[in-house]
């Protein structure tokens, strides 16, 4: 696990090595498609939080799939 | 005891993939949700409202109710069917300064035998020409555990959640996401009502029950990656994968594929498929050889070796209501999921005519319905 964390940290820090020179390769005016509501990671938070809790109360794994509050029903 | 996982889920809320730099629009959602499967019916309302001020501050409030009617296989084989209600309140605050968004939140969940309080904080920053958003998060939970019919029983759980999220624009049509999340818990982690079974030649059924015993600590880590792609004819395709592991020896793989298709100006349709598989906890057993066989004992089917398949569809219709001028846009949404759970080492004890350990493996299907209204103002 420590190796995994260290590796991810290195990956996260790499872009900072030359951030002064970094030019965005997708310009703001080229992000029309990305700004479309259908490209949202989470279009309906009230729904995604509910679905997440349905799974996390019935499976042994949790976390990592985005997040939000919710209820349970594991009995 | 509706479930301590409620608070785990609440803690995890802080690490949702975030887009810093712009606060989300003012919005209200009201939902009716219903889960029906394995002898359990849970339904109730959910409400979420958020409002921003001066484009720099935003507050949000949520309210959620689970009304449970349970005659699950655990209940019918070792206890009596029951009804219960859980209520959860949440408050959130966001502050946007330049390209950094600060988040604070608190939630409280109460039911007759469980109370959970969760505080969370996160910070998100846009960088590299707004191509990259990095979020760091931390949450802390304090739970109190009780047991119905036993006024002397009281215990607690202490929880910490650490998360890193990264959202990366890759091309004009592709966005990528990565999440690393660790949950660590300490305290009374098992369900005070559940039992394990062990072989007992003197029992008529051939087996008897004793209470579960879990370790007092648990640490798990999830690593997830996702990609969302804009298709040329205006549709979106998303793939997602998560690997999970913890010190109870549960290892899980989860994958999901989803597709979004607008239709005309008013309709949006969704379809998705999800697959999950996991190895059971190392102290789990469907049938222990004898009483007190080992230090830790579990027969909780969530900790068993199992898999699930989900197929789901959804439809959303957008409309305006001229007589409600404060609402810019509204949608009404209906979603349906069919979840098929299959257990590899959890047996159906409703079948009593067979030798212990030879009962059929348990499986069940669940129907999940969500009907909700969303309004932007």
Describe the protein's architecture and organization:
The complex is a heterodimer of chains A (75) and B (377). Chain A is an all-alpha fold and 75 residues long. Chain A has helices spanning 2-13, 45-56. Chain B is mainly β and 377 residues long. Chain B has one domain (14-52, 124-138, 146-376): Porin, CATH 2.40.160. Helix content of chain B is 4%, strand content 64%. Chain B has helices spanning 5-12, 73-78; strands at residues 27-37, 40-53, 57-70, 82-97, 100-111, 114-127, 132-147, 150-169, 174-187, 195-199, 207-211, 217-231, 235-246, 251-263, 267-278, 306-319, 329-347, 361-376. Chain B has a 16-stranded antiparallel barrel with strand order 1-2-3-4-5-6-7-8-9-12-13-14-15-16-17-18. In chain B, strands 10-11 form a two-stranded antiparallel sheet. Chain B starts with a helix and ends with a strand. Mean pLDDT of chain B is 92; it is low at 1-19. Chains A and B meet through α1 and α2 of A and α1, β1, β2, β3 and β4 of B.
Characteristic key phrases:
heterodimer, A: about 80 residues, mainly alpha, elongated, B: about 375 residues, mainly beta, Porin, 16-stranded antiparallel beta barrel, 2 helices, about 5% helix, disordered N terminus
């Amino acid at each position: 696990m420590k190796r995994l964390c260290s590796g991810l940290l290195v990956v996260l820090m790499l872009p900072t090595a030359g951030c002064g020179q970094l030019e965005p390769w997708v310009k703001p005016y080229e992000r029309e498609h990305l700004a479309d509501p259908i490209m949202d990671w989470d279009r309906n938070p009230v729904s995604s939080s509910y679905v997440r809790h349905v799974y996390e109360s019935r499976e042994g794994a949790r976390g990592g799939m985005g997040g939000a509050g919710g209820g349970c029903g594991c009995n | 005891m509706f479930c301590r996982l409620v608070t785990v889920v609440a803690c995890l809320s802080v690490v949702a993939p975030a887009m810093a730099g712009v606060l989300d629009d003012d919005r209200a959602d009201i939902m009716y949700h219903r889960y029906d499967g394995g002898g359990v019916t849970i339904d109730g309302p959910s409400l979420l409202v958020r409002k921003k001020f001066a484009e720099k501050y935003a507050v949000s409030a949520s309210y959620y109710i689970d009304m449970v009617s349970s005659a699950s296989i655990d209940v019918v084989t070792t206890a009596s069917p029951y009804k219960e209600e859980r209520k959860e309140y949440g408050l959130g605050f966001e502050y946007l300064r330049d390209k950094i968004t600060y988040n604070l939140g608190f939630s409280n969940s109460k039911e007759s035998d469980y109370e959970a309080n969760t505080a969370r904080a996160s910070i998100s920053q846009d960088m590299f020409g707004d191509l990259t958003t990095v979020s760091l998060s931390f949450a802390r939970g304090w739970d109190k555990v009780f047991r119905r019919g036993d006024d002397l029983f009281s215990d607690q759980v202490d929880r910490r959640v650490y998360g890193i999220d990264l959202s990366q624009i890759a091309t004009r049509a592709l966005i990528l996401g990565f999440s690393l999340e660790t949950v660590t818990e300490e305290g009374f982690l098992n369900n005070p009502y559940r039992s394990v079974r062990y072989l007992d030649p003197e029992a008529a059924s051939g087996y008897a029950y004793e209470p579960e015993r879990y370790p007092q600590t648990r640490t798990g880590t999830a690593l997830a990656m996702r990609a969302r792609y804009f298709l040329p004819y205006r549709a979106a395709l998303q793939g997602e994968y998560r690997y999970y592991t913890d010190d109870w020896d549960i290892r899980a793989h989860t994958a999901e594929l989803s597709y979004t298709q607008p239709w005309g100006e008013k309709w949006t349709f969704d379809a998705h498929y999800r697959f999950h598989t996991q190895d059971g906890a190392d102290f789990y057993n469907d049938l222990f050889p004898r009483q007190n066989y080992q230090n830790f004992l579990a027969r909780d089917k969530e900790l068993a070796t199992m898999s699930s398949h989900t197929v789901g569809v959804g439809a959303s219709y957008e409309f305006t209501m001229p007589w409600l001028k404060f609402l810019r846009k509204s949608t009404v949404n209906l979603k349906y999921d069919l979840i098929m759970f299959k257990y590899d080492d959890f047996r159906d004890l409703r079948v009593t005519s067979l030798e212990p350990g030879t009962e059929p493996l348990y499986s069940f299907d669940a129907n999940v319905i969500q009907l909700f209204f969303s309004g932007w103002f």
